[in-house]
Amino acid sequence: AGGCSSKADFSALAGFLHVIGPYANQDRTCTVGIQCSFPVLGESLQVGTDLMMLIPHSGTCGISGRDSLLALGNTLDLQANTMVTLSNLEIPFGGQWKLCYCATLSGSCPSDAAFSVLVGLLTVLGPNLTNQDRSCA
Question: What's the CA gap between 100 and 119, in Å, rounded?
Answer without folding.
Answer: 6
